[in-house]
Structures are given as C-alpha cells and as structure tokens.
Amino acid sequence: MRGSKTVLDKAEDFVEIGIFICLIIIAIASLETDFLESAFYIVLAAIISPFTKINKPAKRLLLVSGFLWGAWVGYFN
To answer: Is residue 24 part of a domain?
Structure first.
C-alpha cells in the first residue's frame, strides 16, 4: 500500500521530532555566545523538521553534509 507507514517510518518521524526540538533548544542556548553557531543549529533544525517537504534521501544528505561541516568548523567540540 502506497500511503501506509511502516513501524520504521513512524519511528523515524518520532526521532526527527526529537532531534528538531533538541536543535531548537541548543540554538536558543548558544544564541548568547555565538550568533553564527545558533544560526547553524536553526538551519539544521529547519532541514530535519518533519514539516518540510524535503524527501527523505535529500534530507539525509543535507543533514550529513551539515554535520560534517559543523564538525570541521568546530561546533561539536
């Protein structure tokens, strides 16, 4: 069935919502120290948001690229 979601799809949606909330909290917390870092977390939250219409493979590619760039810049130290 094309419209039905499997258990893994539902779990992935739940994890997306959790990560989205955590990224927003981190963005608010880092706003006082570094505006660019806060903007970085907001962009990641916008990508992973379950409300965006980005398809799953593109979303995963954008997130992995963003996290690799963030690690290279030093946001995850």
So the answer is: yes
| CA trace torsion 62, 64, 25, 34 (10° rounding) | -90
The answer to whether 18 and 45 are in contact (CB under 8 A) is no
What is the domain range of residue 35? 7-73
Q: Is the pTM of this model over 0.70?
A: yes
Asked if the structure places residue 67 within a domain, the reply is yes
Domain count, the chain: 1
In a domain, 46, yes or no: yes
Q: What pLDDT, in 10s, does the model give residues 8-63?
A: 888 888 988 999 999 999 999 988 888 988 999 999 999 998 888 888 889 889 98
